């Protein structure tokens, strides 16, 4: 599931990049966004490959308020999706258009 969703993020980024090039032929993405976005993508991939999930789950489910969320929200505390969120944020930054 992770690989399929990560590939979907790549496809979304590629489609967004093509739309940017179609509307503005010159590179309109600032270099800082490209570097920062690439760093986010690399960090998201690194985080997904390490054993961080158990410690994050223990930290997020320790507070009393979190007990109710465990009962009512599926997938709480969303830790399987953190790395995908980071990768998606990086893809958004890499393809961001200067306004």
Description:
Keywords: Membrane, Transmembrane, Transmembrane helix. The chain crosses the membrane at residues 31-52, 72-94. The longest helix has 22 residues, at 2-23. This protein has helices at residues 2-23, 31-49, 53-61, 64-72, 79-94. The protein has one domain. It is elongated and about 50 Å long. It is 76% helix and 0% strand. The protein is mostly helical.
- Poorly predicted spans: none
- Please give the share of residues in helix: over 70%
Spatial separation of the terminal alpha carbons: 35 Å
Strand content: under 5%
The averaged pLDDT comes out at: 83
**Main sheet attributes: strand count, strand direction, barrel closure:** none
- The total number of structural domains is 1
Rg of Cα set:
17 Å
Order of helices and strands: HHHHH
Number of helices: 5
The outline comes out as elongated
Please count the beta strands (DSSP E, at least 2 residues each). Answer: 0
Structural class: mainly alpha
In quaternary terms, these chains amount to: single chain
């Amino acid at each position: 599931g992770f690989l399929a969703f990560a590939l979907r993020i790549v496809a979304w980024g590629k489609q967004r990049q093509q739309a940017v090039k179609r509307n503005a032929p010159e590179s309109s993405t600032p270099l800082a966004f490209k570097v920062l976005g690439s760093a986010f993508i690399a960090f998201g991939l690194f985080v997904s490959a390490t054993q961080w999930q158990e410690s994050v789950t223990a930290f997020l489910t320790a507070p009393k308020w979190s007990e109710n969320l465990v009962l009512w929200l599926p997938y709480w505390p969303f830790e399987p999706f953190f790395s995908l969120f980071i990768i998606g944020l990086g893809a958004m930054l890499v393809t961001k258009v200067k306004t």
